[in-house]
């Protein structure tokens, strides 16, 4: 793994790469409030071993990238998507394959619409559409909302308390297909805490607006698109995956039976093989 800091217009993005730069470039884009470590090292290494050049990065307000005072984020969700292109530019790439999870998938859609020639393909994991809210699609599980209400009284300077809180959140996110690996999640949560100077800055992601002009335009996406969604996702229920499939022309849907809103190690083999196929067969801008 090699670290690199990409800078542009007073924005600093901390990135890490795995593999050979001569191989197909893949940018991994994690979800809201999450630094790059939530793409585990061994996941990245296994993908790199499949002749891929893998790059992960910390969003603004997470990890070692630029952060702002809690509640004072001076950027929009669209500008957070622009950071993906900053990473592509920072590595001297003309285009890259984007693999986004949750908010990362939402940002990937924005990039594909705004910068189509910079995107070789899309893989959207546990993501929702860049579209107006559909009342017909099931909402987030009430159990998650109830659990996260305790965030208001948590001592966010207490490393152990924050880590255990995050372990509990991921436990609720998990499906029934695989046993919940609390120790793996705990180790990642510890690394995430240690990597982020003030963990409260991550809540800036919950306040972001913007991107309205791109809503309802998924039919304009030309990049080859793979959708991966678990049938027991409590954050973005499986109906979101089906809606993405219906909205993006010629997209493919890989269903993970019994998987929740998670990147479980027992799903990696299926996910990695699918990503490898997706990034081997696609061209910039969706060209044949």
From TrEMBL:
<dbReference type="GO" id="GO:0046503">
    <property type="term" value="P:glycerolipid catabolic process"/>
</dbReference>
<dbReference type="InterPro" id="IPR029058">
    <property type="entry name" value="AB_hydrolase_fold"/>
</dbReference>
<protein>
    <submittedName>
        <fullName>Alpha/beta fold putative hydrolase EstX</fullName>
    </submittedName>
</protein>
<keyword id="KW-0378">Hydrolase</keyword>
<dbReference type="GO" id="GO:0004806">
    <property type="term" value="F:triacylglycerol lipase activity"/>
</dbReference>
<feature type="domain" description="AB hydrolase-1">
    <location>
        <begin position="31"/>
        <end position="266"/>
    </location>
</feature>
<dbReference type="InterPro" id="IPR000073">
    <property type="entry name" value="AB_hydrolase_1"/>
</dbReference>
<dbReference type="InterPro" id="IPR050471">
    <property type="entry name" value="AB_hydrolase"/>
</dbReference>
<dbReference type="Pfam" id="PF00561">
    <property type="entry name" value="Abhydrolase_1"/>
</dbReference>
